[in-house]
Amino acid sequence: MRVIAGKFKSRPLKSLAGMDTRPTSDRLRETLFNVLMAGNPAALEGSIWLDVFAGTGAVGIEAISRGAASVTFVESSKAAARLIRENLKSLGVGEGFEVLEQEAAKALPRFAAAFDYAFLDPPYRMHGAYEQMLKLLSESAALKVSSIVIAEHDKRFDPGETFGILQRYRTLVQGDSALSSYRHK
Question: Residue 135, SS3?
């Protein structure tokens, strides 16, 4: 696993052994960021990110590499949170991030500042986490009218169309994975 583009392009990222943490594939991350930056290479400059169920931190680290000003990683696993910190340290990233080692549902209500992008990647088997997190995000101060929420999920699972103020506007399928994108109605 590696950083796809930006200032840390081609730098390796560590992952945890086993199947408990399923990092977003290089190819899917590349597709995600190509779509977000379509027609505007500076689209992510200065953006504020939320990476929920962060795992290895690959998506948030990719955002930092491509110019994000800040990323908040939310990860309940101690081992995964430690790995995120190690990956950031190995890249020399010393600021512009926060690693919250707690359950996502407990972390979201504490955010007062709004994020430009929120990325959710719960374990695919946790179908209920999608509805819970999308509903919590739609009711929180963590989003603004222009925010984009992206949920990575198994292509055979549909997380839903509408959650409060959030409406799905795009689904991209790649291999066995899919990305559902939501924004303010």
Answer: helix
26-36 and 58-65 are packed helices; what angle lies between their axes, rounded to 10 degrees?
50
Q: Which CATH class is domain 26-184?
A: alpha beta
Q: What are the domain boundaries of the chain?
A: 26-184
Give the global pTM: 0.94
CB-hemisphere CA count at 13 Å for 37?
A: 18
**Over its length of 185 residues, how does the chain's per-residue pLDDT go in tens digits?**
899 999 999 999 998 875 456 678 889 999 999 999 998 888 899 999 999 999 999 999 999 999 999 999 999 999 999 999 999 999 999 999 999 999 999 998 888 778 999 999 998 889 999 999 999 999 988 899 999 999 999 999 999 999 999 999 999 999 999 999 999 99
The number of C-alpha atoms within 13 Å of 162 and in the hemisphere containing its C-beta is 3
Between the alpha carbon of residue 171 and those of residues 32, 106, 147, 150, 184, the distances in Å are 11, 27, 17, 9, 16
